[in-house]
Structure formats: structure tokens, C-alpha cells
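Run log // design_07
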């Protein structure tokens, strides 16, 4: 499923500054280097000692810190983002001494191993990535070939390990919440999809595990890097939310040219609270006002996500009420209907195809543009969070005990 939402937890640097040892090669440049060192450290305070996520300028500064010429920083940038090299020891373009210095000072690229993959017949691949603390996150790669044979490859990325919001229909919410992802842990998901598909990712949607707005700082940093360094157009990136008070306005202030997708799932507050418990703290009218302001501030149309749950929110009356709500608050609205992906233990059912079509027609006849999300990878079973839940029930403390063989699991964003 497509996730939507979050709560801002500040990054806490796990590596104290004292651990950053001065490299041998810094000795000669120490007089000039110390001011650079402090400035650069301050700018890396968020993801200390992880190269992935740093801009070309920051990498050039880092090279200078290590007594290298700044073009070594450009080489680092090329190796990380173009060649996608995962280990410093494999930076064969760089002098061995520089590589040693980086490693001795505790730097790493910031790529994690792929722990498990499930491939559906339609080519959708769901990956589990194993983070440094043995936690698992899901990422989905969705390839779509157009009429001319060129491929659009969408990465559906997670922004948190689990999710604290517990939407009633969501497997991720049922699995609980562990922590926010750091910026490099978001970026590496896109690189992992590129590696697996041997193709460039063209689109990124923040619709995997977690609520992006609860980890907005890291999401914005990852967004910058994906746009500037990995070179994915801003318009090809979608940030999704179930709604966290005050965050849509904050996002609007960054004036990104990316799409904001807001998960409504209901046309009125009462029903919404029943489906999305966190809606109690963010009334529907307040969300709609923030969405209208987002459009006014950015000129970017807001897309509304609506998970269709059989017999709960999928009647034409609901569609009529939804159309009224959207017209009341703005223009240029788009609704993305998501027929529910059944998950184990859920009280909800997938709506009948006719109900989906009738819902879409009722919206269209009221001049709301509609798309119906194709369910990808349903053959391997489905829903965001399901695969992770299966493996993360027993935290991974040691190298896998054959969990790989339990492969009867889920796919689909
Ligand atoms: S519980 Fe699921 S749907 Fe709700 S915000 Fe979290 S990830 Fe998204």
C-alpha cells in the first residue's frame, strides 16, 4: 500500500566529534584546514561520517580537510553517485593513502546490504534492506514500459522504520514504530533499486513505510540529494502524507516543484477518524485549508489519495461527498483511488471492480480528475509493511538464519 505520514524526530549523531581522528595527511594543511574542518563538520552534523547524501561542494571541502586537492571531492562525488561504489576501499580512482585516511577517521559510504527480495510476475520487486542496526525497511521498484519501449522505473521509498500513526488498514502501522531514517538510508533505497534493475530510477514516491512529515528534515535532505546529486527531476518526486499538523505549511515554504500527495481516505471527519486515528489531531477542514495554501504557494497541484475499503468508504454517496469537499476547497484537484490490498488479520476487504468504477465515474462526472492505481505485484501477496513484518518479528541480531527461505511473502507498494 502506499503509506502516508510522520513526527519530527531530530537526528542524534551517533558518532561524537571526538571520534573523528585527524588524518595523517592533514598535518601539512592544518593551519588552513582547521577552519574548514569546523565549518564542514558543522554542515555534516546531521549525517556525520557518511558520504552518501553529501553534495559535491561538501565533498570538496572534505577532501581539503584531508589535505587533498578539491578535485578529489569531485571524484568522490562521481564514485558515490555515478559509479555507485559502495565501499571506500573500492574507490580505485583515489590514492590509497586518502582511502586509508577516510576509513581511519570513521568515514563510510553509507550503503546497506539487500537482505531479501521478492519479485512479482509483473516485474515489481520488493526489497528488504538491512540497516546498520539490523532493522529492516521495505523499498519497492516498479517498472512500467511505455508504448515506445522505454522504461519508467519508480522507487517507492520508506522514510521511517515502521510507523507510529497506525492507520487501521495498514500493515506498516500494525508492525509498530522503531525510528526515523537518516538521509542516507532514504537515498540508498533509490540506489539499491537502480542496482537491482540495472536502470536509472525515473520517479521517486515517498509512500513506503512511515509518515514522511514526521521525518521532514531527513526527507528534505534526501530530496535535495536525489534531485541534485542522483539527478532525479523534482517533478518526478512525490511526497505523501496522511496529515501532520503544521508540516504541509513547512513543506510549502521550501517551494519544491514536487507533488504533495495527501491521503484522505474519507470525505468527512467522522469516517476519517475511524480509518486514520491520527486524524483526530488534524481536522479535515484544517488539512484542506493547508492544501489550498500549498497550491497557492507552490502552484503545484495537490494529489489526494483515497484507499477504497469495501463497504466502508466506497459508495457513490461517499464519492459525491468527496467531490463536494474538494470543490469547496480548491480547484485543480486530482484523486488517486487505491483499491485496498488485503492484509492478513485486517477487517477490511477489497472493493468489487464495479464499485471502484462507479466511485471513479461519480468523481469524474463532477469534474474531478481521477486515476485508479493498478495493484502491482498482487500475485506475490501485497501491502506495504507486510514483508518487513514477516521478517522483523524476530530482530535480526546475527547473520541470517535462513530466513531467506521463507519466501512466500509480499509485494507491492
Ligand atoms: S500507518 Fe501506514 S498508511 Fe498510516 S501513515 Fe503510517 S505508513 Fe502511512
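design_07 sequence
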Amino acid at each position: 500500500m502506499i503509506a502516508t505520514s510522520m513526527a519530527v524526530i531530530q537526528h542524534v549523531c551517533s558518532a561524537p566529534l571526538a571520534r573523528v581522528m585527524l588524518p595523517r595527511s592533514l598535518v601539512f594543511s592544518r593551519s588552513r584546514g582547521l577552519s574548514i574542518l569546523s565549518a564542514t563538520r558543522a554542515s555534516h552534523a546531521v549525517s556525520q561520517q557518511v558520504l552518501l547524501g553529501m553534495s559535491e561542494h561538501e565533498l570538496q571541502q572534505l577532501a581539503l580537510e584531508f589535505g587533498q586537492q578539491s578535485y578529489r571531492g569531485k571524484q568522490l562525488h562521481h564514485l558515490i553517485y555515478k559509479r555507485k561504489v559502495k565501499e571506500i576501499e573500492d574507490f580505485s580512482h583515489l590514492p590509497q593513502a586518502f582511502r586509508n585516511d577516510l576509513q581511519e577517521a570513521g568515514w563510510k559510504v553509507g550503503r546497506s546490504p539487500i537482505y531479501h527480495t521478492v519479485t512479482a510476475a509483473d516485474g515489481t520487486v520488493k526489497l528488504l534492506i538491512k540497516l546498520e542496526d539490523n532493522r529492516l525497511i521495505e523499498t519497492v521498484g516498479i517498472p512500467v514500459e511505455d508504448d515506445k519501449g522505454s522504461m519508467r522505473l519508480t522507487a517507492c521509498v520508506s522514510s521511517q522504520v515502521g510507523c507510529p500513526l497506525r492507520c487501521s488498514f495498514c500493515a506498516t502501522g500494525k508492525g509498530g514504530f522503531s525510528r526515523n531514517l537518516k538521509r542516507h538510508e532514504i537515498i540508498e533505497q533509490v540506489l539499491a533499486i537502480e542496482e537491482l534493475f540495472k536502470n536509472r530510477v525515473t520517479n521517486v514516491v515517498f509512500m513506503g513505510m512511515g509518515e514522511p512529515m514526521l521525518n521532514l528534515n531527513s526527507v528534505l535532505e534526501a530530496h535535495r540529494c536525489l534531485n541534485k546529486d542522483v539527478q532525479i527531476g523534482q517533478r518526478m518526486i512525490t511526497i505523501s502524507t496522511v496529515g501532520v499538523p503544521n508540516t504541509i505549511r513547512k513543506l510549502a515554504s521550501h517551494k519544491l516543484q514536487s507533488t504533495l500527495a495527501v491521503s484522505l481516505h474519507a470525505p468527512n471527519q467522522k469516517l476519517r477518524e475511524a480509518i486514520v486515528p491520527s486524524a483526530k489531531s488534524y481536522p479535515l477542514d484544517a488539512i484542506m485549508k493547508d492544501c489550498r495554501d500549498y497550491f497557492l504557494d507552490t502552484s503545484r497541484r495537490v494529489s489526494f489519495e483515497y484507499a477504497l475499503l469495501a463497504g466502508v468508504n466506497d459508495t457513490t454517496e461517499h464519492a459525491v461527498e468527496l467531490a463536494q469537499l474538494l470543490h469547496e476547497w480548491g480547484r485543480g484537484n486530482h484523486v488517486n483511488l487505491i483499491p485496498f490490498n488485503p492484509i492478513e488479520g485486517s477487517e477490511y476487504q477489497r472493493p468489487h471492480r464495479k464499485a471502484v468504477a462507479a466511485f471513479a465515474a461519480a468523481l469524474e462526472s463532477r469534474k474531478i480528475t481521477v486515476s485508479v492505481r493498478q495493484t502491482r505485484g498482487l500475485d506475490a501477496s501485497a501491502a506495504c509493511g507486510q514483508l518487513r513484518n514477516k521478517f522483523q518479528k524476530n530482530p535480526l541480531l546475527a547473520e541470517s538464519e535462513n530466513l531467506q527461505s521463507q519466501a512466500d511473502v509480499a509485494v507491492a507498494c
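The longest helix spans residues 183-197.
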